[in-house]
Design goal:
With 358 residues, this protein is mainly alpha-helical. It has one domain. The chain contains 15 helices and two strands. A hairpin with a 7-residue loop joins strand 1 and strand 2. The chain is globular and about 60 Å long.
Length: 358
């Protein structure tokens, strides 16, 4: 809103034109969302006394230490992100508006899931089929709308990293694929969010990388130099990324072990969906799988566990996702979190390196 309504009227003032730059507004968005989240959380924690039921089949330490911790902290993350993006972003940008709506929709879905867990005092929440239906619906609408915003030369085209000038142009296939990416990303982050601070830092790293990529694909000089698709107006997504990083940073202050609050599905479903949405806008869906390699590992561990158990009646891991398996093996929670952070950092570097490997 600042960009759209205030800046044009005060452009004659020295220094105001600085706010036209995406990089500067991204920095401002990051700081804004951080301070909003940082100062709202103490109020939220004090006033909100509803805690998320802890899985009975989980590690015993969780039942003892985490019982009674407030949940739904993701509501502040998403509110701070959207508020800051609205303040510093160009609200006439279709990509930015679509991404905010997608994120908010997934957050509302996560909110109802958390609400059912609290109301009925169990860890099940919404049925898996119902949750998946709405995830697919929101992602499909988003994917279709994004393709309507594209320039004709890139609309409906799927690009690949490592392979120069190779694309597949088929609109129905692309929309189905990008829907899968968004839903998969949302659920993968949701599965990762099982320990204090575990999901938050990798989400910030992935968002940072995707923010850089969004800026490059929206800048014709960088896009041509890196031989990646130029997507007009996609650079504005960097401001949303900055907002999301700042909000997650504010949350992490209170979610660091021992957590004073959990983000719940209200946050994890939305953050994962947002990562998927950003990758779709920037046409770097495959790179997201590299940058978010930790989330992929967590999701695969669950799928393998379920598949193998249904096939043989036995388990591969002591407990899935894999971070709980490592806890059962004797790893301290903080050890698991920090080592997974390191893994996510390595994946993020590899993902960024793909920009130069074409």
């Amino acid at each position: 809103m600042f960009f759209n309504f205030i800046l044009p009227n005060f452009a004659y003032i020295s220094g105001v034109n600085l706010f036209r730059y995406i990089t500067f507004r991204t920095f401002c968005a990051l700081l804004t969302s951080f301070f909003v989240a940082f100062f709202l959380y103490p109020i939220f924690i004090k006033k909100f006394h509803y805690s998320q039921p802890i899985r009975n089949d989980g590690p015993e330490s969780h039942i003892i230490k985490k019982q009674g911790t407030p949940t739904m902290g993701g509501a502040i993350i998403i509110a701070s992100t959207i508020m800051s993006a609205l303040l510093w972003g160009d609200i006439t940008n279709g990509y930015l508006v679509a991404l905010m709506i997608l994120t908010f929709s997934y957050s509302c879905l996560g909110f109802f899931d958390d609400y059912k867990k609290i109301k009925y005092k169990n860890s099940k929440g919404l049925s898996g089929k119902r949750k998946l239906f709405f995830q697919i619906l929101f992602a499909f609408i988003f994917s279709y709308y994004v393709e309507l915003l594209r320039a004709p030369n890139i609309s409906g085209c799927l690009t690949f990293p490592f392979i120069k000038n190779f694309v597949i142009c088929n609109l129905p296939f692309l929309i189905c694929f990008t829907t899968f990416v968004i839903v998969g990303s949302s659920n993968a982050v949701n599965l990762t969010d099982g320990l204090d601070g575990l999901a938050t830092f990798p989400v910030m790293l992935a968002t940072l990388c995707l923010g850089i990529i969004s800026y490059f694909v929206g800048h014709i000089v960088f896009a041509n130099y890196l031989n990646i698709p130029y997507i007009a107006n996609a650079g504005e997504i960097s401001i949303f990324c900055g907002s999301m990083i700042g909000a997650c940073l504010g949350f992490l202050w209170y979610n660091a072990p021992p957590a004073a609050i959990f983000m719940g599905d209200t946050g994890s479903l939305a953050l994962g969906g947002a990562l998927g949405g950003i990758s779709v806008i920037a046409k770097h869906e495959f790179v997201l799988a590299i940058i978010g390699g930790l989330f992929v590992i967590e999701a695969i561990s669950v799928m393998l566990q379920v598949f193998y158990f249904r096939l043989t009646g036995k388990r591969i891991f002591l407990m899935a996702p894999i971070h709980h398996h490592l806890e059962r093996k004797g790893w301290n929670e903080t050890t698991v979190v920090i080592r997974f952070w390191i893994i996510s950092f390595v994946f993020a570097l590899i993902g960024l390196a793909t920009l130069k490997i074409r």
